[in-house]
Every structure is written in structure tokens, then in C-alpha cells.
Design goal:
mainly alpha
Length: 150
């Protein structure tokens, strides 16, 4: 499950094929379908596991400015799948609502999301020859968690 979550976090839902999952997980295609029913079933299971094991235990630490969570799958799900899949949207929004409660301020949630986005490779770095006010480099394949600031 962790390997599937990592693959979905790095390449997003549409960037992962069943063949990719079978190869990465080392399982037979029939086993994957037998357990999860579909790629979406595995995606939802991986997202739920990520939320329960990686996200919720860290919610109370989120009010600390120096904390930068490794929540790639959750945040990629928010950007990549929530608009197309109501179940994914419900999972993502429930975590954001919990974070709002913990921090007592939705602006903190927004700031953390911005911090995560800026920490992504290729996001927020201007091209050397870009005109003033433009030319962001945007990487379509997310690869890492946000970097902690020292």
C-alpha cells in the first residue's frame, strides 16, 4: 500500500497505469483487481491509509511554523482528483477542516498549502530569461515532500 501511495503521490492518478502498479507492487493484475476492484479502489485505499497514518497524527503539530508535512498524496489528490471524484473531495476536505480546527484559523491552512506548493520542485522558481512578473517553471510530475526551512 505504501508503494502505491508513493507512486500516486509522485505521478498523480492519471500518470499511473495498472501496469505501473503491478510492476511496482510485485503483484499479479488479478490479485490487484481481486483485492481493490480497480485502480480507483487502490487509490482510495492508499489515500485513506495516508490520511490515517501520515496526516492525522501530525495535525496538532501543524500550528508550528517550522513544521513542513510530507503529505504529498493528500495534496496531489486535492489538486489532481478532488474535482473529478466526490469521494476524494470528501476525504481531502475533511482533513482540511480538521486542520482548520487544530490551528483555529483557516488562513493557517492556506499558508501551509502555499508553503508546500512553493517547496515543490520547479514551482515558484523564475526562469532566468523570463520577463518581470512572469515565467514560472511548473513541473507536471510531483516528486518530493516540502522542504523544511532551516
Amino acid at each position: 500500500m505504501e508503494a502505491a501511495a508513493d507512486l500516486f503521490a509522485r505521478r498523480a492518478y492519471d500518470g499511473v497505469s495498472i501496469d505501473d502498479l503491478v510492476t511496482r507492487l510485485g503483484v499479479h493484475r488479478n490479485s490487484l483487481y481481486g483485492v481493490f476492484g480497480s485502480k480507483r479502489g487502490l487509490y482510495l485505499a492508499a489515500l485513506r491509509r495516508h490520511i490515517e497514518r501520515d496526516v492525522r497524527p501530525q495535525l496538532t503539530r501543524m500550528a508550528q511554523a517550522e513544521h513542513a508535512p510530507a503529505w504529498d498524496l493528500l495534496l496531489v489528490a486535492a489538486v489532481d482528483r478532488a474535482s473529478e471524484d466526490p469521494e476524494v473531495a470528501d476525504l481531502v476536505l475533511s482533513v482540511f477542516a480538521e486542520l482548520d480546527e487544530v490551528t483555529c484559523d483557516p488562513r493557517v491552512t492556506e499558508a501551509l498549502l502555499g508553503k508546500w506548493l512553493r517547496g515543490r520542485p520547479g514551482i515558484g522558481h523564475r526562469r532566468a530569461n523570463a520577463p518581470e512578473g512572469g515565467g514560472l517553471i511548473i513541473n507536471d510530475a510531483p516528486e518530493t515532500a516540502p522542504r523544511k526551512e532551516m
